[in-house]
Design a protein that fits this description.
The chain is α/β, with parallel strands linked by helices. Helix content is 35%, strand content 15%.
Length: 144
């Protein structure tokens, strides 16, 4: 009887496992990727527009601005001129509302002015038909 010195575990170590060579496959894929990048058209970040031709329209006129100042003592000033009372303010609002191009009313209120005084002025302007009213100087109330 012959003794075999090779065991089964030793036979597996001597044999190499066959595997596929992936280097040519990767090379082909890289070439295809480069060809794809070259053939893609360049994307332009622009928008095609049909611009109007001819003479441009005239510039819009500067709006007439009325500076209305309200102090903490409820004293009103119309472009620096004191306004005597609410009736005089209503008369000025009425004249401003009847103009063909209404002026812009910029209300500058003192930070210590009560809200009801500001609201009364805005309501009076609205009642007379003024449409362009704004409270200016609210940056005083903005938190830093």
């Amino acid at each position: 009887m012959a003794i075999d010195f090779h065991d089964e575990a030793g036979e597996d170590e001597d044999q190499a496992e066959p595997s596929m060579n992936t280097t040519p496959l990767i090379d082909v894929l890289l070439v295809l990727l480069v060809m794809l990048i070259i053939t893609i058209p360049i994307q332009l970040h622009s928008v095609n527009m049909d611009l109007p031709a001819g003479v441009p329209p005239p510039d819009a006129p500067e709006p007439v601005v009325v500076r209305l100042e309200l102090s903490s003592a409820n004293q009103l000033q119309w472009n620096g001129e004191p306004v005597a009372d609410r009736a005089a303010l209503d008369a000025r609002f009425s004249l401003a509302a009847q103009e063909p191009v209404q002026p812009e009313i910029h209300l500058h209120a003192d930070p210590k002015t009560k809200y009801d005084a500001v609201a009364a002025v805005l309501t009076a302007a609205q009642r007379q038909g003024l449409l362009k009213i704004g409270v200016v100087g609210l940056d005083v109330y903005a938190k830093p």
